[in-house]
Each structure stands twice: as C-alpha cells, then as structure tokens.
UniProtKB/TrEMBL annotation:
Molecular function in Gene Ontology: FAD binding; oxidoreductase activity, acting on paired donors, with incorporation or reduction of molecular oxygen, NAD(P)H as one donor, and incorporation of one atom of oxygen
Flavoprotein found in the keyword field: yes
Protein name per Swiss-Prot or TrEMBL: FAD-binding domain-containing protein
Pfam family, one: FAD_binding_3
Keyword vocabulary terms for this entry: FAD, Flavoprotein
Keyword Lyase part of the UniProt annotation: no
FAD-binding domain sequence ranges: 75-389
Signal peptide limits: none
Organism: Rotaria sordida
NCBIfam families linked: PRK08243.1
Length: 600
C-alpha cells in the first residue's frame, strides 16, 4: 500500500520500517482495545500530508564557509556555548530526544570540574538529573534536607520542608560533582564536548534567510587554525560575562534589570562537619545575616553579611568565628558551632539581574548569561536547569524525535486549554504535534488510546511529554494491577515488578534510587509517581462522567457505549453509543436509545 500510494518515500530502510510497522499494528489490531483495523489505518496515515517517513535537516543545505578547509567544518543541530551547568544539562536533554549537539567550553576540563560553587539541588533539579541518567552517584552521596531552620534574633523556627511540599526535598550535592557526572556521561557516550576553546565568534544567527543556518568560528588553545560549526540553533550558556553570546545581540535589543544590594557576602568553606543537619538562615538586627549550608561529608559552607567597603584583610579567623557564633546561636538552646580550618574564602557584592530577551532569532540563552541571582538556596544553579528543561522544546520544535508516544492526543484531551494558559509557550504544543507525527508514522495508535492530557496540569508540570508517556505505558495490559488490595505495585514499564529495597540501574528500570518500596522515610519515588497502576480502568472509567444536574458528559475521544439513568427524580434510562475515528477525524457521532421507566 505504501508503494502504491507514495513509492518515492520508500528506500530499502524505509521499506523495512514500514513492514515492521505493519506487523506491530497487526498485533495491536487483535487487541480488544483497538478501534481501528490495519488497512484503514494505513490508508489514513498514507493520505495524511503531515505523515513523512523522511526527515530533512536544515543543515543538509547549509552554505559552507569558504575560508576554512572541509576537515575543520563540523555539523550539528544545536551548538552549545558553555558547560556550567545549563549547557551540560541541555546537551543531555537534547541527546535524550535524539538531537545532536556540540558543546564548546573556554575553560579546561579540570577547572570546570573543580570549581566549587552552588551545592543545593531542588527536587525538580534532582528529577531532571535522574531522568537524563546522571543520578547514580548523586543518590549514593547526597545529603537530604527535609527541614530548614529560619532564625530571627535567636528565635529559631523549623519549617518541615518535605511535609509542606508533599514529600519533596532539597538535596545537598555540589555543582562541581553535577558537572563531573554530566561531562563523564557525555564523553563516554561519544558526544562532542571540547574544552580550551578560544576566539568564539557567531555569525548568521540573525539571518532572515533560513537557507543558511548559524555559523560559529573558533580556535583551540595553542592552535591558530580556525574551525567552524554549522548548526540550526545556538544555545548561549557562557556564564555571567557571556563574552560571546550576549554581545552577539544588538545592544538596542537587550534590556537588563539589575538590583545591587547595599551589602556584601563573605563566603567560607570550612573543613568541619555542620553544627546541625539542616540549613540555617539567620537574621540578627544588630549583627546581620548568616547562613550555614552543608557540604558532605565533612565540610560546611558559611555566608556572612558584611559591609561593601570590607576586604578579606578585615576578616581574620578570630573575627569570623565570633560573628558566626553571634549570628547563628539560637536562644534557649544548647548549641555548639563546629570550627575547623577555613579552606576557601571569598568576598563579593550581592546583586541580582535579569536580561531579556532569552531568545534572539536562532540564538537562545540560559543560566547566568541571562540572570544572576544571589547564592541563597543555589537559585542560580536550579534556575539554569529549569531554563533548559522548560525551553528544550524550542530546539525540538524543528526536529523530529521518537521520545513521545502520541503526545498530540494527550494535548487535545481536557488539559489543552489549561495547559496553554499555564505554559504561555506555544513551542510546547507545536513540539508535541511535531513529535507525534513521527511516532504515529512508525507506531500508530498505542493500545488503550490517548487519555493522559490532564496529567499536564499537575502542579509544577513543565514538560508536556512525560505524563502522557507514563499513562501510555500504564494502558498496556501487562502493566495493570489485579491485586490492589494486596499492595502489589507495578512500575510504568510493562512486566516490571519491584518490591525490594534495591537499586535498579540497568535494563528497563533505568532508575538509580529506591522507588515504590514500602519502607518508612523513603521518599525517592520517581517524578512521575502518578497513575502507577490501573491505567486501563482509569481510561475506561473516565470516558463518561456524571454531571451535577444528573446528566452525562462525554469526556474522552473514544468509541464507546454507556447506559445510565439521566434526568430528575429517578431519571430515564438512556443508552448512548459514541462513534468516532479520533485522532484521524474530529467528527463524533452519538446514537441515543431512550427507555422510559415508571417514576415513583
């Protein structure tokens, strides 16, 4: 049929893929949950203009520079300038979606991996790191923060962070370790990451003509030979100074809002165990602010509020320890400050700034290149990860990926309007449809249909793919749980049961932490810990819903039949048959059969 309809789309590889597709779809058609047969499905897929078996990348027609040799020209889809940490996370996210990238870093690898900076990871950041496969060492060496101490003039208040956030925690794990894990993973996987890069220049990123994509020129340390990267998009993750990316935008386009605070911070790294197991934020109206953070296993980070006019010479060790004791000691509590050698000390003014826009033509920004935040709570690190996680869809918008399982259906379920309102980013929706085309062209409708759009409205949800994919797995018959009363749990992968307190790091689990185990104080459930079982019952039960006025609501796109009492008093018995061919046709037919009953 493919040969008859569009033979120009089929080469040997595509013909093999088409045969495999037919075999898979034939198996699915034998399932009671299937609403379509193979032949009409293929006819609709073939006649669909958006269903292509060949994907053309814009870099295939990119005009090559004439001033360099072909051996010095590199091609990729996304060029990432800078590793710390937005660039490294973005590279992993893109790779996970099948998008190629090259990362350029001006510093040496040893510098990047040893530069001690932020050390507190929010739950969302931990989830991202685990999702991209760099969570194993993190979970083996982390230090969980379930509480935070906030202190005013010696009066200490403990906030149960985990309890107030439904089990979410803060994790102490140094940024240098995060980068070590990301760099190690990228190099071992053979993805391109180059250190000691100099003289980076960006060209054609603002070209109105899409026929020639952006061009990056650069040299390597100790080598004067110029090299070039041809790409589709550029990610500017080159830090606070942004020596390359931000200055590639016309000055009249950039707008920076900055606030400089009337004090500085003295930052200290001390070789001594923390005096408490939790973070301490302490404000004293006489002496000023102090913060204790944890750097496991035997180090502590302190921050002291000091005058803008102070220098490091103004703060000898004796004065430092006296001030820390004054500001951190709680009233009416027995408490001792653990002292030790001061390994590092730095003094810097506190400021915050945000630069807009985050996108200029084909150049995107993330991390410190567009926002500088005070070090409290490691917001710089966590916001950088959020930047690339939320905006990764911008780069995927023009590239097809096999990651999703029919996302477009999920977006068209009841969540669509709410998700667009909450997101305000059209790239999410466009990316979902682009990816859906690729998935549908290869796999067709998955068993059970698309029903997980409402998962996109979960609080804090920023990626329109994950919830839908989770529920798609749950719709498979092998993933259902027939023994809920016995507390048997299945994870989202079919045929995978896990009831033991043991790390799973290989195979279909791909999890580097404890999950779904019934043990006290175990909070390491995967981020998509919703809808673990009963995927098919959930779908079937949500097809038709009762309304407040004794009516019926057809809440899902699915061929189905329902019989219920409708209307006031005891109502009348109504049987409704819904017929549709969603997602290939939006037309829905309802057939009604009404049986009047005697009312009392």
């Amino acid at each position: 049929m493919l040969v008859d309809h569009q033979p120009d789309l089929l080469d040997d590889n595509n013909r093999k893929a088409a045969i495999e597709f037919i075999i898979r779809r034939t198996c699915w058609s034998l399932s009671p949950s299937s609403c379509h047969h193979v032949v009409p499905l293929l006819e609709r897929l073939i006649s669909n203009e958006n269903c292509k078996l060949i994907t053309h990348l814009s870099i295939s027609s990119t005009v090559e520079p004439t001033t360099t040799t072909s051996s010095n020209i590199h091609r990729t889809q996304v060029a990432i300038i800078g590793t710390e940490p937005a660039g490294s996370v973005l590279g992993a996210l893109l790779s996970q979606s099948g998008i190629d990238s090259i990362v350029l870093e001006r510093h040496s690898r040893s510098y990047v991996e040893s530069n001690i900076r932020a050390g507190l990871l929010e739950q969302a950041t931990v989830d991202v790191l685990d999702d991209i496969g760099v969570g194993e060492r993190l979970f083996q060496n982390d230090f969980i923060q379930r509480n935070i101490h906030v202190q005013f003039d010696g009066e200490r208040i403990t906030f149960p962070l985990s309890e107030l956030t439904h089990g979410r925690v803060a994790t102490t794990y140094g940024q240098q370790f995060v980068l070590q894990d990301l760099i190690d993973q990228r190099i071992k996987s053979g993805r391109r990451l180059w250190f000691d890069i100099e003289s980076v220049e960006i060209e054609r990123h603002d070209a109105a003509d899409d026929s020639s994509g952006p061009l990056i020129r650069f040299t390597r340390c100790g080598n004067s030979n110029e090299e070039c990267i041809l790409c589709d998009f550029i990610a500017g993750c080159d830090g606070v100074l942004s020596p390359c990316c931000r200055r590639s935008v016309p000055p009249n386009i950039l707008h920076t809002i900055e606030r400089v605070y009337p004090f500085a911070w003295l930052s200290l790294l001390v070789e001594a165990p923390p005096s408490t197991k939790e973070l301490i934020y302490s404000a004293n109206i006489i002496y000023g602010f102090a913060l204790q953070s944890i750097r496991p296993p035997r180090s502590t980070r302190f921050h002291l509020q000091v005058s803008l006019n102070d220098t490091l010479a103004d703060w000898p060790d004796e004065r430092i320890w006296n001030e820390l004791k004054r500001r951190l000691k709680p009233n009416n509590l027995s408490w001792t400050l653990n002292e030790g050698p001061i390994l590092e000390r730095a003094l810097f003014p506190i400021r915050a700034s945000v630069t807009t826009p985050m996108q200029y033509k084909r150049l995107f920004f993330a991390g410190d290149a567009v926002h500088i935040l005070p070090p409290t709570g490691a917001k710089g690190l966590n916001t950088a990860v959020k930047d690339v996680q939320s905006n990764a869809a911008n780069w995927m918008n023009g590239h097809r990926t096999k990651h999703n399982i029919n996302i477009a259906q999920g977006c068209r379920e009841p969540a669509l309007d709410s998700f667009i309102v909450n997101s305000s980013d059209p790239c999410f929706i466009q990316t979902s449809y682009n990816n859906s085309e690729q998935v549908m062209s290869e796999f067709g409708q998955f068993s059970g249909g698309g029903f997980a759009g409402d998962e996109n409205c979960r609080q804090g949800f920023s990626d329109p793919r994950q919830g839908f994919e989770t529920c798609a797995f749950n719709s498979l018959s092998a993933a259902l749980d027939p023994f809920l009363a016995r507390s048997t749990r299945y994870i989202t992968c079919p045929n995978s049961i896990q009831l033991v307190n043991k790390l799973k790091t290989k195979g279909q689990f791909q999890n580097t932490f404890l999950m779904l185990v019934f043990i006290s104080d175990v909070y390491h459930y995967r981020c998509c810990a919703h809808n673990f079982e009963c995927g098919w019952p959930y779908y079937s039960e949500e097809l038709w819903l009762a309304t407040w006025n004794n009516g019926l609501c057809a809440s899902m796109h699915a061929a189905s039949q329902v019989t219920a009492l409708v209307g006031p008093n005891n109502g009348i018995q109504v049987t409704i048959v819904e017929e549709n061919e969603y997602p290939f046709d939006d037309t829905i037919h309802f057939h009604f059969q009404i049986i009047e009953t005697n009312t009392i």
